[in-house]
Amino acid sequence: MSLDERFGAHNYHPLPVVIARGDGAWVTDVDGRRYLDMLSAYSALNFGHRNPRLIAAAHAQLDRLTLTSRAFHNDQLGPFLAELAGLLGAQMVLPMNSGAEAVESALKVARAWGYRVKGVPDGRAKIIVAASNFHGRTVTIVGFSTDPTARSGFGPFTPGFVPVPFGDAAAVAEAIDEDTVAVLVEPIQGEAGVIVPPDGYLRGVRQACTSRGVLLVADEIQSGLARTGPTLACEHDGVVPDLVLLGKALGGGIVPLSVVAGRADVLGVLRPGEHGSTFGGNPLAAAIGREVVAMLATGEYQRRSRELGAHLLERLRREAPPSVRHVRGRGLWAGVELYPDGPDARARCERLMSAGVLAKDTHEYTIRLAPPLVIEKADLDWATDRVLEALV
Ligand SMILES: *Cc1c(COP(=O)(O)O)cnc(C)c1O
Asked: The pTM is what?
């Protein structure tokens, strides 16, 4: 911890625990203490720590080939793209590494589509975003954040983004004009505190986009891959986005792997040399991604998320002490918001850590819970007991 503090940039404020091993939903610190991981690296560990299927796929690929660059083909990328497209019902897939890169890629694709296909005059493309969004940390992305901590001191920013209130489809429809090329939205806002929009919100945004020839880009980097129950959170509203962004759990908690997936007539606007990434589409990540897709194709993780999630949310709602203002969530994903008159969420998470449960505060008074989808029900109940005690 002192080395992190002395030599590391101070862009995080971690809980004082040093993890040395992980197995499923559990981690062990350097002193041998065990903790239940109720954060899952912000959903990058949906399949748990060192999931045996994913570790085996990674080992096998490490012994064959790790990196080629996109200057050449490799024998894993094509099958990965095809299998992921099959899982999602997408026509084309663009592989990248981090989530922020997938978002940046989608913004570039949407703008290029706007100029080349929709016919927006050069330099005028507009993209509508939601207030309290979180899409990553690049200059362009924080430029359209509405969170002062994320953006202050990092300007000047990229123009061309229009924030409207989250959860208000009419506001999206009103903000669309002839220069609008896309609406970028999280189906459920994760970093904002697991904010679930009103029923029909996404359907309304979809209708507005379709009727005005605007792309719907769903950022499912945190909400996707079974975290909320279905493979994509958009499915709750029966909505198919034009482009969907995936990351986090797509790399199995082993490597960074993100994609933009969707319509071929949109992603197809990119020409050789216009976009790329040295590590994007590397065979190690692709081999792991193929195993992630195969695991999701069974439906087992979606079922666990639905069933365990319903149980978790029901218990939190029924047993929450008076300190709790709201319990929000969908699938195995909960935001517990506290009244601001008691200890803040950070203090509660420190207390939880002492009780053997790792969770993360967000925005001062919300505790976010997102255990690995492989968690056993008895372990989930044990952790829920600890959470309820820490809320008193
Ligand atoms: C985490 C996240 C990102 C950014 O992903 P990184 O891999 O950290 O760059 C983008 N969008 C959403 C919704 C996220 O939760």
From this structure: 0.98
